[in-house]
Hints:
Layout: H1 2-41, H2 50-54, H3 73-85, H4 89-115, H5 119-131, H6 133-136, H7 145-164, H8 168-184, H9 189-206, H10 209-237, H11 245-257, H12 266-275, H13 280-287, H14 289-299, H15 310-316, H16 326-337, H17 340-356, H18 358-377, H19 383-398, H20 407-410, H21 415-433
Helix pairs in contact: 1-4, 1-5, 3-4, 4-5, 4-7, 5-21, 7-8, 8-9, 8-10, 9-10, 9-19, 11-13, 11-16, 12-13, 13-14, 18-19, 18-21, 19-21
Amino acid sequence: MYADSDKYEEKLMKKHYTSEKNLVGILFFCLAYRIFYFEFLHPNMILYNSDSVDYFASIDVFKGIVDLYRTPVYPYILRAFEYLSKGNFIRNLFLFQQIISFFSIVLFYFIAKKTVKNKYLIILTTIFYGCWRQLISQNVNINPECLCIVGSTFFLFLVVKYIETPTKQIAFLIGFFPFILIMLKPIYLISLCLVFLFFIARIVFLREKKMIYWGLLGWVIAFAGVLGYCEMNKSHHGEFVLSKIVFENSIAKVIISGAYKQGGDQELIAVIDSTKGKGFYFSTYYLNNEHMDDYSFNLKKFPSYLPPTDDMLFCKNTPNVVNYSYARMSLFVKKSQHSMVYFKYIIQRMFNILWAFQRIFILLFLELIILGYVFIKQNKIAWMEWLCVLFVVGQCFSILIGGIYDIGRMLIPSYPFILLLAASFLEILVFSLRKKKLVISI
């Protein structure tokens, strides 16, 4: 009996040692590639655009001062590095983003290890996460995308830890963490819905009431926090919104679709007719001119040594005209949206999104078939896979309310989820080719 116990313990230690050795090798490879990528392939690489300017907004949440267009986490980070770094502000910001991005590889390796059984797939998926250009290029971007990738990975890490060993502390963190993500970027609003569904499903199928109550407490605090932030916007700006960017994108869509002609406000229709030749976003900013007032103020705080991009110049050259009221604009947009012209445009946009990301949707469709099979035949719920599928689907359809040119950028927070789904699907293919029984990890 003791000999068997010693052998089992020795086997576990050996497996743990191998896993650590694999992780060290992965980290070394990713570090070497990142040095090569940023020092030799793309030296002095700095990414920014007109959105970057908005993140230099003056905010003070504790005094109720918030920005109407950008949630506060990234502006606070920029302000902290401005204060601490002075002349080396951008360099130190990018160093911070590089460091947290690199250490998130450790979290992703742990997640992949718990989600996928095949050790070679675990290694390859983690290396891909650590070296994929689409991900690592965000480390030198003056936008919150780098933190979004890390935030998504940490969220997955919390879920994996909870599924493996449910505790009230982790349940509470899972419930509350969507608030942090939403304050980083409003596109994470879908995570608030998913976490609620996750907790309800755990109560229904696993009877985890004691732990889930703590999770729901965190969720209620997060939900109240989001509502509270919207109320701050109403108090400070007169509009109960998380971010007015959604409204601005709605204006752009009714213009590009031609539905604005159904808006019923002849003055606004005339303004669009006379300005849309310069671009539908020119008309958008012309109508929603208060954003340009904020933009001009924030531009003064943007690092002057960085040359303006084309879209920054576009915003800067938008004339300073009368600010039309939000109530009037909102009524105009709603009337435009309640038209057959706009409905046809949205349907066409949905098909464009499906076509643009056909590989992702094919992967999601195949995963749903597999998950349905596992649930019906094996009476098991693959919690991680379901969470990943629903998150990616939610993000894809949130593109409908996003910017015209932001399709690819809005999916960036989903990339860790997509990589895990791809690894899981490849593992299932391997099982099928070897004619082994399908085993779902968590």
